[in-house]
Design a protein that fits this description.
The chain has ten helices and four strands. It is an alpha+beta fold. It folds into three domains: 100 residues, no CATH class; 32 residues; 72 residues, no CATH class. Strands 1-2-3-4 form a four-stranded antiparallel beta sheet. Helix 2 runs antiparallel to helix 3.
Length: 234
Amino acid sequence: MNIAEDRSHFTAEAWLVWTTLLAPELLQGRLETRFYNHTLQLVDLIRRTMSFDYTYEELRELRNRWAEWVQNYERYYYCYDEERLSACPLTIHALLHIIDGIFDAGPVAASRLFPYASLNRHILALEQIAVIKTRYNLYQRLDRLKAMRPPSHGFRLPAYPHAILLPARKKIKLEAHLFRCVVAHLATRFDTSANQIRTLVPQEMDSWARVQQDGGGDLMRAAKASKPQTTIAG
């Protein structure tokens, strides 16, 4: 995998290893001094933010340093130019709130894995069922792991051969705010200008309510597309 050609396969852990362990050495002499120093500041901030304990004074200092780092980032890369807006993804803004999260939930080392907790429990439950089925020969009575039947209808995109789009399907017109969000995302993802992306994004597109992994995989639903909007009187 060459991350210079496709960064979508790079995991968060891989980015952490690259940023904190490899980048300081590999980027030395390859970047202008201000950009290289800015990168070293990021490395130091990440390492200190990932500590297991802090004092209140240290957290306040880290909050100020993160804010200063983001301001320098905007000056170096965004340059306060609308055409370079794609250089400011949401993740950059999120850096300003890391310390708030530590105040609310404790050190990041204790809370950063919480999105995977439910997945871990699900995997553990599946393994426990598999052991019970094997030990007590209950395959027929406890066969809850049978693969789902592949859908007989749906739409496939050549670029995503293993995904099947399923009804309900309808045409939607992109509102101005949503259109800008789509343009900003694609400009960041494909590292190109927002103006070029605007000419490629249609004002109207298909909306699908469900998508399923081919071969009987998980079925994912879009709640907004699957259910009609309900107005609740106050």
